[in-house]
Amino acid sequence: MKKLTSFIIIVAGICVFYACRKNDNPKLPEGIDQGLFPQLVQSDSGDVLIQDVSKFASSFSVDVYFKDGPKPKKMDIRVVYNDNYTNVKTLQADVTSFPATINVTGPQLAQLFGKTPDQVEDGDFFTIRPDVYLNDGKIFEAFKYGVNGTDTFKLAPYGSDAMNFPDANVDIIYTKVCPLYMSSYAAKGRLTVVDTGFAGSINAAFAKYTVNAALDPADSTTLILTGWGGVAGAVVKIKAILRTQGATVPVQVYAPTYGGLPYHNFAVQGKGAFNACDTSISLQITNTVAEGSFGATGVQISAGQ
User: Fold this and answer.
1) With respect to CATH, is domain 28-176 assigned 2.40.128?
2) DSSP label at 3?
3) Are 28 and 163 in contact (CB under 8 A)?
4) Distance set, CA 300 to CA 133, 212, 285, 294 (Å)
5) Phi then psi dihedrals of residue 21, to 5 deg
6) Three-point CA angle 213, 214, 215, nearest 5°
7) Which fold has domain 182-302?
8) 38: closest CA among 138, 174, 175, 167?
9) Which of 36, 91, 144, 186 has its CB 3.0 to 4.6 Å from that of 77, i.e. a possible disulfide?
10) Whole-model pTM above 0.85?
């Protein structure tokens, strides 16, 4: 009897194994798993941040994820403001051909929610998703929510596992941020650098120091910092990606020696982001020398002391 029971357990295990192998793909709601799963892609040329609502202009494409699968009857492009699922607006209705390009402007988004461009505040954001209408009459709403007493909670529109598909993207989010003006950083004259992971580990006096800030005469999107690492005359340049407010630090040697260490040609390379609201920069910097690398560390640059 024990042998028979063991045999049944083994067979059942094999069946479960093969059943799992046969259904390795993440699960989607009925209808969506037949190919009607939306895919939104931000355009390479449009704005990705709302730095000035009145000037914001962007576009994105809407398509089905499974290109060889059936197409929906239509999609309605829907929007919510600051995650308020109880107030859903329509950006564009009756999209019936795919892929389709959807254009959007800042004033258009603001007007949908009864606001003027100057009433959209820093930190506010618009989330865009499509309602999917199937040919059999079913509708998959983009912004479903549940109610628990007086509270509401968000529900996954296309199944909890939908985002496990490679490159899956079901929404576009546009956030209002402070506009980035590189001249604002240069105007401060001196900025404070906090680097406890590298400079501060070599000499506690270098954990926090000041640098002179100026715009590169040859490139107004590049900030020149003089006095890097607390070394007089040591220069490091940070380039801004205005579209995303990202920051890049190209590979550059700033000092032949540093902190009495027995190494040569101290260099930095990294990336991060500008925060125009408080005139700061957050960086992840990799420190190297001719002999090797010290790895990456976080560096904060700000206008404060």
Assistant:
1) no
2) H
3) no
4) 48, 15, 10, 18
5) -65, -35
6) 140
7) Lipocalin (2.40.128)
8) 167
9) 91
10) no
